[in-house]
Write a structure and sequence with these properties.
- The chain has 19 helices and 21 strands.
- The protein is of the alpha+beta class.
- It has two domains: 241 residues, no CATH class; 223 residues, Glutamine Phosphoribosylpyrophosphate, subunit 1, domain 1.
- Strands 1-20-19-15-14-9-8 form a seven-stranded antiparallel β-sheet. A seven-stranded antiparallel β-sheet has the order 7-4-3-11-10-2-21, with helices on one face.
């Protein structure tokens, strides 16, 4: 399938990478090479994705872990499959319980924001349904790095140090001591270039491999999570883990200038990117570096987020149907609100009707868009003793307002920020793409998709390009290299522009696309990223 908007100019940061028999693109080079090794051992793109994901929990623990959630879009045998492996709130946690304790909002750290982790279940489910090698074999590279040690890469070292300083200040309870024992063994974070070992983490990966993930939900690992929770005032129990199953879901899409852009349905926020693209397709864009281009992108994202805040929850609980939010008529209605000046976004009324991302492809045509996260770096600050498992804090996205669609309820999944993307055309795969980074993610999806489709940039150029991030109201962050003349014009149009010194909050993306028989990869310069090609 010819991807007709490509060019192969040399970009400013890195050159685009070509492959044929296999490719892995992710935010840490050791993990990318681990995935490629699995391909060379006879695994397919799904095996490579699992290997890379597991390896990232070791070599980039600042962004994800075994105790986090995961989502995947898998192109396998001429069909796109969606996996939702995010967890729900414990049965024993409710708004009433929190209010009795005088708690008025969900905290970032501790047991309250901990939901059932879905990542180990995702690995087991993907391996069982699509994998060629055993999960035990696929986890070997991650186990080796955990047990034998790995050199801490520069970007990981930076965020490890930042997390340590935050946790040292904010985490005071006895329940948090295991985080420091695991990730700051000499009472300090490891420096870039140092060899670091996570032996308990390695033993846990061995147990997950031996049991195809079941130990985490109904075996010894589940017992350890339950015991730690009971001992330190937590809410999660083994019964919550035993009930958990990942969900195979039908991906959702909009057609953007002849290309179908795919996301996982709610409660994930992939629909935000699709709603924004559905608005933007009503405009014609003459050139990328035009203030009007950025103005319209920002306004579309604002409108999409306004709708998401009002309507998005678990799909079965939503009062507005996904298809209505993505209808052409609703996109046109929202587009009419975009004028020459920045607006304060409000939700419309449709008619009824801390994260890692990776992409893999093999020579047989299989492709995977995969994302997993602990949220806010290391997550809740809780590490289960003798396991290395850092538990995520995804429940922080709940509200305790009982009238809100995203309110906390037992066994309910929260609004979720992590989203994998995929592009097809005429029912043929173009390839996986993604940009991690909390609420930056749908904004990054819109920007890289438009960079390729509207402005003809190849995957590497699309990722290299400077980014903007809408934050709230009319507030917009821009990267250090964002053109000054565009920033000034956006300011005149009513946007409140805030230049940022570092690029860490603007997401880190990966793209693999297939052009006839050639795989073309791009990787983000904002991380220790690599495209490993074969």
């Amino acid at each position: 399938m010819k991807f007709d908007f490509l060019n192969y100019r040399y970009p400013s940061q890195r050159t685009v990478v070509f492959g044929h028999r296999g490719m892995v693109a992710t935010s840490q080079y050791l993990a990318a090479n681990a995935g490629l090794d699995i391909l060379k051992k006879g695994g397919n793109a799904i095996d490579a994705a699992i290997a890379t994901a597991a390896c990232l929990t070791v070599v980039e623990p600042t962004s994800n872990g075994i105790g986090g959630d995961a989502f995947a879009l898998v192109w396998y045998k001429d069909k796109l499959h969606g996996l939702n492996s995010c967890g729900y709130a414990p049965k024993g946690l409710s708004i009433e319980i929190l209010k009795e304790k005088g708690i008025e909002e969900i905290p970032k750290y501790g047991w309250i924001p901990v939901t059932v982790p879905g990542a180990p279940a995702a690995w087991g489910e993907l391996s069982k349904k699509f994998g060629r090698l055993s999960l035990k074999e696929v986890l070997k590279p991650a186990i080796e790095y955990a047990m034998e040690g790995f050199p801490v890469s520069p970007t990981v070292g930076y965020f490890w140090d930042r997390a340590f300083n935050i946790y040292k200040k904010d985490l005071k309870g006895e329940e948090f001591k295991h985080w420091f024992q695991t990730f700051a063994k000499d009472e300090r974070p490891p420096r870039a270039g140092e060899i670091f070992r996570l032996s308990y983490h390695g033993k846990t990966l061995i147990e997950i491999g031996d049991t195809n993930g079941q130990s985490f939900y109904s075996g010894d690992l589940a017992d350890k999570i339950d015991a730690f929770s009971r001992k330190t005032g937590g809410y999660i129990r083994k019964k919550d883990l035993e009930k958990y199953k990942p969900q195979w879901v039908e991906p959702i899409s909009v057609n953007y200038r002849g290309y179908d852009i795919w996301e996982i349905p709610p409660s994930g926020q992939g629909i935000v990117a699709l709603m924004a693209l559905n608005i933007l397709k009503e405009f014609e864009f003459d050139k990328k570096d035009d203030p009007l281009t950025y103005h319209r992108q920002i306004e579309a994202i604002k409108l999409a987020f306004a709708d998401a805040k009002e309507y998005i929850s678990e799909e079965k609980r939503m009062k507005v149907k996904t298809k209505d939010l993505l209808s052409d008529s609703y996109g046109k209605e929202r587009q009419k609100l975009i004028g020459d000046k920045a607006i304060l976004p409000t939700a419309g009324k449709p008619e009824a009707g801390g994260t890692v991302y990776l992409a893999t492809a093999d020579g047989e045509g299989n492709m995977v868009s995969y994302i997993q996260s602990n949220y806010m770096g290391f997550g809740s600050g809780l590490v289960v003793p003798d396991t290395g498992v850092a538990l995520h804090n995804r429940g922080h996205n709940f509200t305790i307002d009982p009238t809100h669609i995203n309110c906390l309820e037992p066994l309910k999944r929260p609004y979720h920020t992590i989203i994998p993307g995929f592009i097809t055309k005429e029912n043929k795969p173009i390839g996986p793409f993604g940009v991690m980074g909390a609420f930056m993610q749908p904004q990054g999806h819109v920007q890289v998709v438009m960079n390729m489709i509207d402005f003809g940039l190849n995957p590497q150029e699309a990722l290299d390009s400077y980014r903007w991030q809408w934050v709230e109201d009319k507030k917009v962050f821009i990267e250090p290299d964002f053109p000054n003349y565009i920033a000034k014009k956006l300011d005149e149009m009513g946007h409140e522009i805030y230049p940022q010194v570092e690029r860490g909050s603007f997401g880190r993306g990966q793209i693999i696309i297939k052009d006839n028989e050639t795989l073309i990869g791009g990787t983000d310069p904002r991380a220790d990223s690599a495209v490993a090609a074969w």
